[in-house]
Amino acid sequence: MIMGAVAVSISLTAMAQDDAGFQFTTVKSLPISSVKNQNRSSTCWAFSTLSFFESELLRMGKGEYDFSEAFVVSKTMMDRATKSVRTHGDVSFSPGGFASDVEYCWKHYGIIPQDAMPAMGKLQGLDLPNNSELDELAEAYVKTITKKEDGPINPMWKQGLQGIYDTYLGKCPEEFTYNGKKYTPKSFAESLPINIDDYVTITSFTHVPFYEQFAIEVPDNWRWALAWNVTMDEMVQVIDNAINKGYPVAWGADVSELGFSRHGIGQLPDVSSPDMKGSDMARWTGLVYNSDKRTFLTSKPLPEIKATQEARQLGYDNWETTDDHGMLIYGIAKDQNGKEYYMAKNSWGTDNPYKGTWYFTKTFAAMKTIDIMVHKDAIPKEIAKKLGL
Predict the structure, then answer these.
(1) Which pLDDT does position 20 carry in this prediction?
(2) Considering 9, 58, 344, 352, which has the largest number of Cβ atoms within 10 A of its Cβ?
(3) Is the sign of the CA dihedral 288, 292, 296, 298 positive or negative?
(4) DSSP character string of 206-265
(5) Which parts of the chain are beta strand (E)?
(6) How far is CA 56 from CA 89, 194, 199, 312, 371, in A?
């Protein structure tokens, strides 16, 4: 079901008033496809990026689509296993990924609708994805190949691994019928008004010159896909400009901070701030367990740290900022104090106060974004000029 700006504004504001300390008013909201639940699949990258392209088609007025995560996961994991074997295990093999993995799959293998392949979990008799056993088997299999010491590797290993993915996810179809017409995954992708070359990945770090491309050094960027490097402020400007011009944003970010809550909030409180006084400071200093600290730091709007390029880089270099999760930024909202937040569609179902939406402060986004993917036309002209786009 498509969620429009009016429906989102009304429902989320109402839910927000029931949540302790937060009252949100929607400023700008783009149409999105229905909220999915990745459950125990470790494939947020597939859910969030396919959701991004579904939103792109809504932006273009092409109607609602629901693409198959299982297809993208199967193709991507076989590619990742191949690179892991070729590098003798130096490239990690795990179920995580990047938005660029979906981009690569779309361009080289195609894409399929959800009903052309079983949804993840279905072949196991489950209502929701649970890839725990699949991931353990695949990892053990690939590890056996990469650690082989007794002679050449038998090229048949790929067939064995593909069999594992086919058993748990189903076979990727070579042909299928959609709305009465036959397609291959490639011809289906070509039938859609998506030009993959129009999409750009952007990040912001100081160990690489600004306005150049580089491969972000995180384990799940195993394809070594390139991102354009801009300043932190410019990265935020790109997000703002995209939403205000009607373009969704695929967002990869760190969600390991205590200021991130599974209830739908992300902020980076400054616990040393003079504004943290009286009962708030007394409560904070009395907390021992991180679970209690997280609850407190996401219970209401609090004064935040100052986002700086230097602090952002330090968080990346010391592993405080990691490539944890992917979501879809589709809107902007304000809290009761006038502070702006990004509205992000998550893939953890609708069992949270905002029915699948998370609210992140711009400080959180500035400090904790790993990368974003946007249509090139969503980039402000002055920034696009610096990138040569």
Answers:
(1) 53
(2) 344
(3) positive
(4) SSS-TTSEEE--STT-TT--EEEE--HHHHHHHHHHHHHTT--EEEEE---STTEETTTE
(5) 25-29, 176-178, 181-183, 199-203, 213-215, 226-229, 249-253, 260-261, 265-266, 325-334, 340-345, 357-361, 369-375
(6) 36, 8, 11, 29, 18
- The average confidence (pLDDT) of the chain is 93
Decide: 186 and 110 in contact? Cβ < 8 Å.
yes
pTM of the model: 0.93
Cβ–Cβ under 8 Å, residues 239 and 245? no
Q: What pLDDT digit, counting tens, does each position of 123-140 carry?
A: 999 999 999 999 999 999
What is the distance between the terminal CA atoms of the chain, rounded to a whole angstrom? Answer: 35
Given a contact cutoff of 8 angstroms between Cβ atoms, the answer to whether 77 and 138 are in contact is yes
* Gyration radius of the chain over CA positions: 21
Q: Which residues of the chain have pLDDT under 70?
A: 1-20
pLDDT value for 348: 97
Q: What is the phi/psi pair of residue 202, to 5°?
A: -130, 145
CB 305 within 8 A of CB 320: no
Tell me which residue has tokens 């200021």.
259
138: left (phi over 0), alpha (psi -120 to 50) or beta: alpha
